[in-house]
Amino acid sequence: MNISPVVDIFQTMLMEGAIIILPAAGISIIIVVLVAVIMAMMQIQDQSLTFFPKTLSVIAVLLILGPWMLGQITRVITGIFDGLPALIGV
Does pTM top 0.70 for this prediction? Predict the structure, then answer.
């Protein structure tokens, strides 16, 4: 039994998942660092203040890049289903 195609599928899904989630995660990290720097400069100790800007930024990224993300996910899943007959040897 050859497991190489299965490993390739999982590797593709992992890489595509990372590529899809990186913009939202990157913007979230940037916003949190900026808010933390501003809070440190103003000597504010409330940690819940980072929640609102981070949430708004992630929602904005999802609204802007949502169609691209859905297209990427659709492309990967379609590729898996198209390659399924070759994987099972039909």
Answer: yes
Domain range enclosing 72: 15-84
> How does DSSP assign 12-77, residue by residue?
HHHHHHHHHHHHHHHHHHHHHHHHHHHHHHHT---GGGGHHHHHHHHHHHHHHHHHHHHHHHHHHH
Residue 35 domain flag: yes
The continuous run of DSSP H or E covering 7 comes out as: helix 4-42
Whether 1 maps to a domain, the answer reads no
Instruction: Say what the pLDDT of residue 70 is.
Output: 95
What the block records as the tokens of 55 is 């949430």
